[in-house]
Amino acid sequence: MDHFLYRNGELHAEDVPVRDIAAAVGTPFYCYSAATLERHYRLFDEALDGTDHLVCYAIKAASNVAILKLLGDLGAGMDVVSGGEYARARAAGVPGERIVFSGVGKTRDEMRIALMGGIRQFNLESEPEMEALNAVALELGVVAPVTIRVNPDVDAQTHAKIATGKSENKFGIPISKARKVYAEAAALPGLEVVGIDVHIGSQLTQLAPFRQAYEKVAVLAQELRADGHDIRRLDLGGGLGIPYTRSNEVPPLPSDYGAMIKETLGHLGCEIEIEPGRLVAGNAGIMVSSVIYVKEGEGRNFLILDAAMNDLVRPAMYDAHHDIVPVAEPVPGGEPATYDIVGPVCETGDTFARSREMTAMQQGDLVAFRSAGAYGAVMASEYNSRPLIPEVLVRGDQFAVIRPRPSLEEMIERDNIPSWL
Ligand SMILES: *Cc1c(COP(=O)(O)O)cnc(C)c1O
User: 31, 56, 270, 346: which one is catalytic?
Assistant: First the structure.
């Protein structure tokens, strides 16, 4: 459930007509619902009720500081994958003890930033990374809390670009090598082993791959404890999928996911961390765009929007489907039409949807891309010198621009012409 509904013939974001926001900020723009973000965070928090846990929002899904502050104020931890994301979490007021640092290639500079600013744990992914963090910690005179990300070699059955838990993926250490690598970590004086980490992919629509991975983690936890390691925390990653279409299969609910976690891992008495990103932010955001032209092609009609692949890359990058709906509610018996929905960028890949059936549209009409809150604004670029589009946050009947649209001057001023040119 989200808070983008038709009321009085107009799409609303909570209590605000989307058309009013478009009039105030111009299109295209992203719009997030505070109530939806809050609801999704609480679903996870409640799913783990009764177990010691921390929901660490994976901020790479949508990292605007206003969104991080909203979630942080509810008690969320944060999963960060770069020094930049760490700085964002801190700027949102999230204390270091609620921040976990993931990622396959943390640099020494990033490790230093997090160790000096405070960190709950590093999720390490290789032996060279272990050695680097050990060196940085010793240099700073601190001990770094760590888990090691194991690769359980399970098929997440998701898009190949976002599957991370098979042995051929670059992530983690093979689970078969885990005991050896944990022994090496324990021998490094700058590291303190606190648990195990696993993350098998994104947009998973079934529980079975999670279950397979977590069962392997449960076995490993017992083995590592027998080897003398104090395994007290399990970071189970993110990855729970969302429904991108109304008709599609319905992914598991956070409550079922939580129940499965308790069932597979509850007996270990560990503190549980989960890192949901997409499920928190995905259906909490839309992208709103205007129709620039309706173009009649040979055998097909094109809806040319003012948003493009640089603003929302998921269709071009992952062949992703987004529901695209008119902001003015279609009237029953309205004229139907079929469109290829495209942006203005000079690439055929700049296609949001092919042969999409919807109501007939005209120049200037507004459309909303549903489920655009995660991996939307954060993946945007200025390709074709199109300035990054603004982000807006709605709560009840209020809205605010949480990132403005840069002017063309601001975009160009970042370039520098050398004096010798
Ligand atoms: C991307 C990522 C997540 C979040 O994945 P979602 O599918 O958005 O829930 C969590 N943990 C790690 C390590 C990730 O790389």
Answer: 346
